[in-house]
Amino acid sequence: MERSSNRLFTTQDILGFAVLAVIIFIVLPMALDSFRLNLFGKYLTYAFVAVGLVLCWGAGGILSLGQGVFFGLGGYCMAMFLKLEASTPKNTAIQSTPGIPDFMDWNQLTALPWWWEPFNSLFFTMIAVVAVPVVFALIIGVAMFRRRVGGVYFAIITQAFAAILTILIIGQQGFTGGVNGITDLRTLHGWDIRTNDAKEVLYFVNAGLLFACLLIAQFVRKSKLGRLLIAMRDQEDRVRFSGYDVASFKIFIFCLGAAFAGIGGAMFTLQVGFMSPTLVGIVPSIEMVIFCAVGGRLSILGAVYGALLVNWAKTSLSESFPELWLLGLGGLFIAVVMVFPNGLAGVYAEHIAPRLSGLFGGKTGAAKSPKETPAE
Amino acid sequence: MNMQNPNFLLMVEGLTVSFDGFKAVNDLSFYVEPNECRVIIGPNGAGKTTVLDLICGRTKATAGSVKFKDKELLAMREDQIVHAGVGRKFQTPSVYEDLTVFENLELSYPKGHSVFGALTFRRDANVKARIKEIAETIFLEDLLDEKAAYLSHGQKQWLEIGMLLIQDPELLMLDEPVAGMSVAERKKTAELLRRIVEDRSVIVIEHDMGFVADIATRVTVLHQGKTLSEGSMERVQNDPKVIEVYLGH
Amino acid sequence: MTDRKIPKSLAGPSRRAFMAGSAAMTASLFAPKALFAQDYPTAQINTTGLAVTDDTVTIGILHSVTGTMAISETGSVQAEKLAIEQINAQGGILGRKIEYIQEDGASDWPTFAEKARKLLVNDKVASVMGCWTSASRKAVLPVFEQNNGMLYYPTFYEGLEESPNVIYTGQEATQQIIAGLNWVNETKGAKSFYLLGSDYIWPRTSNKIARKHIENFMDGCEVVGEDYYPLGHTQFNSVINKIRLKKPDVIYAIVVGGSNVAFYKQLKAAGIDMTKEAPIVLTISVTEDEIRGIGGENMEGAYACMKYFQSLDNDNNIAFVKAFKDMWGEDIVIGDVTQAAYLGPWLWKAAVEKAGSFDIDKVREAQIGVELETAPEGYVKVHENHHLWSKTRVGRAKLDGQYEVVFETADLVEPNPFPEGYQ
Amino acid sequence: MFSDYSMSELGAIFAMQGFAGLILFSVFVLMALGLAIIFGQMGVINMAHGEFMILGAYVTYLTSNLFAAWLPGVFGMYFFVAMILAFIASGALGLFIEWAMIRHLYKRPLDTLLATWGLSLILQQVYRSVFGAREVGVSIPDWMMGSLPVTDMIEVPINGIFVMVLATGISLAVYYMMFRSSWGLQVRAISQNRVMADAVGINTAWTDRLTFGIGCGVAGVAGSAFTMIGSTGPTAGQLYIVDTFLVVVFGGAASLLGTIASAFSISQAQSIMEFFLSGSMAKVLTLLVVVGILMIRPQGLFTLKLRK
Fold it and tell me: Domain coordinates of chain B in residue numbers?
């Protein structure tokens, strides 16, 4: 009675992970020049968020329109560390108060605010990158899920959080760099992150972290918790009356999504070289949902493809037809909802996988209904 | 009639809930003994389902007390009530349609109910054996790998009962368990219930009087949120107040 | 100002050139001193592998065509394209036609950084005309510094920056603020000021400089209130009430974008008639471009402090306005930033020709001290701090959406991005 | 902080500040009513609500140009024509969108959210292509600009009064339609029990379409009115969306009265705080308070307690 869904990896999962690994670790680095590779590295940072959304939204039915908040918090934590490192008294000698970040000096701050101090430590920063978003998610999650706020209300309130944080960051520019963000980041422990070599290294670090997150996500999906999430999405009351504290599961998965987003944000900062409130607001938050939806809201690997594909399309379309980009993106939103509700993964499972299995004569689970298509 | 009888499994006293002034359940009291099968009947809108909702924590009471094994349920969360030993089946079958029968039962298995527990839960031999055992009880042993969505209406009802049984509750509350079943399924369900009652108490809401007579130890008649009559099936059937309510209007 | 090395025909288009209509034809007719490519072998003038061929040189244009900033940046793109066309009509730079690659920053700062990198690393452009907001400039700045590119940045901005890889063709804050404040104090007798702005770095820094100047350098003057609203805010009745309460002589407004429209409409509706000048409204954020959205009737009587107005009456500007309208349509308006954007390609051309090379380092060196007599705003000169010497002017908004110039500084104002005593 | 002012000044200021709050209240009501109808009664999230408003604003712009060109004599009255046209244009687009998109998604409220977000992007680009990226200046008839002096210190803006009258009028009209017309009865019946409403012969498909259309039409009228106080550009609609949703959610989604009460409390809170704090902080605090209250009381201000 061994059931395939109880194993961490089915044959098909292994295949899916392997293909993605080959694409990310071998094909892209070989096919792309350093500039394009860095771009794809940036896209991959959004994939962290999209994978988190698959867990929250696809599996758990919790649609957060505020993932940008967590992405931003992670990114800002990293940016604060890098900014402090870049603001040596020597580099900032022309300031009235050397040794503090330039934007603080422009805003008449004469000393580093106390809550910036810990970000002198890389170790603390690495913890904060995950911990700060998680604590935020925990507060929001406890407040909302304990009171059984869900669905549309949750979406709107998380969206409001994105708006609030953006206004706050912009308004408190002496502490946050305001609308400009935290810019001109240079080195990580003396290692210049702006060189092409560094960017390549960062790409692989990023890809490695993404795979770690994918494995965690796969583990969660395949654990009993993963099945519980699906059960909760469809029959929340039944789960509750089977003796589960539904809220704690939702809080957990929301925090996990926030942690992924925070890591993504930190990697974004490292690869792009700055962090700004435009990554926090409502628009990027919703765009991250679309990456997830395009890939297939039920598929963690799909989320990665979704993030890569949409962003690649955005870059190339806006290079050649900037006017058309919004039309294309808008159309994509509508199409993915109305025509391909399970995104790329759904298309794969319905149309490609059956043919593949017919081709190889194997039985690779093609008969699965699209509604519960597992990864890939 | 404030009876502090330690032999009662469930003591409901002065239970009241009002929705914007409308008292759906009004100062209701009743007591359930161990191994009793209590059937609650009453006309539509009498508050039957609301009573179950109140006991299992789905609806918050305005006043009163619900004691289960001397523990006050009204102060507890739904999942804590379940862990205390109260199971609840809903009126419309609610099973996880996307999951298989096996997985449905597995999710109800009383282990790994914390976040960490669920992450580290392993499907070991004990779990499998227990699931198999329950599946036999609810006549679904051949359908373990079927998705719940493909079950018949009656089979879904059984599956939901099975999901409760696997937790081995001391008090089981069933809301119209035979609604929408064929005659054959009804008979099987009655047989199932009789077996269940052997080692636990059950509260059943039911309209089908034949079925009620078949299983009930005692019957409580609710009317406008209050107890109208209580006792054996025979006594209740002959109570003029009950006849008035059912036939008079 | 006597020692101008650049021949007039090189430094800018002549007025007659525009009137001839066909730009291509004018090149040979009116630019007798055009330089020929064969005099400048590519290998000599381009030693760092920029996108320069024997007959073309490629530059980048990097502005937002989509998103919220597209409203503001459109004018800059148009001005830059006009300048490029005119330069090409005169024979190009060192005999090479300018080609451009236009990228869309999409009002998104990471996209700006990404596109800047693309232009510099992949396309190897010889210079970039671009950016509008400070945030986009801050985002691309490290990219330009690391890859040694050259950015011509057109917007008036808060200062506090002096990058070797940027030429700031707009005013830094002191150039825009101080003369205007002095003027309103001296000619209108204004003593009390209410500072208002959208909540981001440029209005905040500008108001900070304004406050320092009012409090430290203007006798008997005071700031009676200071307020900031989020970008995109559309309800200003509360602050208008506060203004009534404080009764300032001057409302010093640095509101931007859609908020602008809301602010001036509501100001007028609240019965503050700006033509009566009680209080006076003085702004540094409303150019002719913005008035189109606000409506001339809602703006009439307000004063703006800029370096350029479309109504400027000099030959350079008359020709510029005509050429601009010929290219982009009769009903287009030209604001301060649009003019500054127009200067970008011309300043770069002058520097390249002075250096005799496209190499960034040589251009940078040559750029200092470059003068442009043909600028629509009048004569400008590049300061060694990479900003321009420019005049400050005050205009009064008219019903038709144009400004009437009521004041200009006698001399060019020195750019001072790190003003002592104002920080 | 009050010591600098005389009592009469303070009185006048508080009167005007109260009035400013009322204007903001009217603005919120206008923004939120259309959304409250659609979200409250149909459970559909219309993220393109702001773009429907902007459509109304563009219609007003076109109408003003038409009047200026062809009927300059009655230009002062164009605004009323424009509002009717705005209602028709936004309403018609709403009917079409319901038919093409929304009706397929009634069971997936989160998906309507995404699809209508896509719609909003498309509409923005369409506006940009048709009307240009710049804001358009809508000329307002002279009689609407300016203010009425009540005392020598208190002046009330006429467009503020106009917005208030309009908000009251539209609220009454919506109230009448919801609670006095057969359409309203049908809408309420459907929102209570769709299957039953279907069974008793209500044309649920058509009622839904009409509801969506009317909600969008009201948004169009709001957009038309907002040309008096705000900007009209392709992306201006985005400015309103968060505020609007919070007003509706805070009010308790199913209750029109709740929407009005919530618009009132949010506008007054914001208006009072704006007077004492910087505008940015007032905004942040208002949003935080609203979100905070929603966390404690997720069902919003007004809601019926229902048996599940």
Answer: 35-57+77-247
